[in-house]
Design a protein that fits this description.
Blueprint: E1 2-8, H1 10-13, H2 20-31, E2 35-42, H3 46-59, E3 62-66, H4 77-84, E4 89-91, H5 93-106, E5 119-121, E6 125-127, E7 136-141, E8 144-149, H6 153-171, E9 175-183, H7 188-201, E10 206-212, E11 215-224, H8 227-245, E12 249-252, H9 257-267, E13 272-276, H10 282-287, E14 297-302, H11 306-313, H12 317-323, H13 328-342, E15 346-352, E16 367-374, E17 377-384, H14 389-409
Parallel strand pairs: 1-2, 1-3, 3-8, 13-14, 13-15
Antiparallel strand pairs: 4-5, 6-7, 7-8, 9-11, 9-12, 10-11, 15-16, 16-17
Helix pairs in contact: 2-6, 3-4, 7-8, 9-14
């Protein structure tokens, strides 16, 4: 089966609100094994909404709408759906009683136009609204379905979860299961070139590369009659991909980079300190996101000025004079200095030019050096990062944690 999502409301078309409903519904439908090939947004206009319904019903088994179920004249979704299906509406006494009860509990007088929300075509499945006054409905005609949901997300999500999802589960014989590989340190084009044959060979499972939060992800999705079978189909694909690009895969599904690195430090009983210049504390702040990191995280210093690099970290003034604050040599001494001062097994240092000003032809904006000290051995990596000031600092932080991850894998 396939479905189409129509979001109704002029406020969506004008950009006054962000359409989170469509995102939520698309994900939920995918998990139910129902394909979504089209999404659209339509204003509160009868002719355009009729056209959207008619076009959608030509290509989809199910149309799910959000919005346009209020008591005012411009709330027309239900009325238009009934017109398209040529179904007449009548008042549903049970729905009317619930609406009246809702207003009574609030101590507010119900206006006459709220009765509009209690009208439905005969035979429709009426969906309870536990967070508002507008019930939803499931309409059916000639093996086509229109599922009408309210617009406010807190009303729509609960109605979908409690009423629509069980109904759709009974209709669908298949489910989708997805696993996500999270990669860092490899470009999208390079990744595709290394696994293009695996991608091209697949139909079920399917492989979809995409970028999220400045890193690459591979979503492997299988369709089957149960979760166990789907996972059994996915696992061999994951192993194939690991054989090609395993070094760049740092986690699966919802595990973050800081979680991976923090667990490695704790399991190996390695203490850590950080000395940051261009990242301004983001490295230490990111590590501290992980509960339990206090057992190994000793100290984090933001040594932005040359004076603090000298006084706090013991960076040689001659190094700064000869090579500059943004240099391999300075990053190396920063990492060694913070590890020595706080007697830690591990240290991270960052120094760079985040911009938007301060770059030169030799040292452009985006130039970053990251030092990693582990038990007496220091390595420094050079990066040219792109983006605005915030993006460069975030990318530098991710690279710093990934550099540490790779070094820890060698132990």
């Amino acid at each position: 089966m396939n479905a189409e999502i129509i979001s109704v409301g002029t406020e969506i078309i004008l950009g006054d609100i962000v359409n989170t409903n469509a995102t939520y519904l698309a994900k939920e439908l995918a998990l139910l094994g129902i394909d979504v090939y089209y999404q659209s947004s339509v204003g509160d206009n009868e002719d355009r909404l009729i056209n959207a319904f008619e076009e959608g019903l030509k290509r989809s088994d199910i149309i799910i709408t959000t919005g346009g179920l209020g008591p005012t004249n411009d709330d027309i979704t239900k009325e238009v759906a009934c017109k398209v299906f040529n179904q007449k509406m009548e008042i549903d006494k049970n729905s009317l009683e619930k609406i009246e009860e809702f207003f009574y509990k609030l101590g507010i007088e119900m206006t006459e136009n709220n009765k509009k929300q209690a009208y439905f075509p005969k035979g429709a499945i009426i969906l309870k609204n536990k967070n508002g006054t507008a019930p939803g409905a499931i309409l059916k005609k000639d093996n086509k379905y229109i599922i009408i949901l309210p617009g406010p997300p807190k009303e729509m999500k609960l109605m979908f979860e409690d009423e629509v999802k069980p109904y759709l589960k009974d209709m669908s014989n298949e489910i989708l299961v997805s696993r996500t590989l999270k990669l860092f340190g490899i470009g999208e084009a390079v990744l595709e070139s290394k696994i293009i044959d695996i991608i091209n060979e697949q139909n079920n499972p399917t492989i979809a590369p995409y970028i999220s939060n400045m890193e690459l992800r591979l979503r492997i999705t299988a369709k089957s009659d149960n979760e166990e079978n789907a996972n059994n189909m996915i696992e061999p694909i994951i192993e194939k991909i690991k054989d090609r690009v395993g070094k760049f895969i740092y986690a699966q599904d919802n595990i973050s980079m800081e979680t991976v690195v923090s667990k490695m430090l704790i399991e190996k009983k390695l203490t850590i300190s950080t000395a940051e210049s261009c990242t301004g504390g983001l490295v230490s702040a990111t590590l501290i996101n992980y509960p339990g990191i206090s057992s190994v995280f000793m100290e984090g210093c933001v040594t932005y000025s040359n004076e603090s690099k000298i006084n706090r970290l013991g960076v040689n003034p001659n190094t700064l004079e000869e090579y500059g604050a943004v240099s391999e040599e300075t990053a190396r001494e920063m990492a060694k200095g913070i590890a020595k001062n706080f007697n830690t097994n591990v240290a991270i240092s960052t120094t760079g030019i985040a911009g938007p000003e301060g770059g030169t032809s030799d040292k452009p904006v985006g130039l970053v050096y990251i030092g990693i000290y582990i038990n007496g051995k220091t390595t420094v990596n050079k990066y040219i990062l792109h983006g605005n000031r915030e993006e460069i600092r975030l990318r530098a932080t991710k690279n710093a944690l990934n550099d540490l991850r790779l070094r820890l894998l060698e132990l």
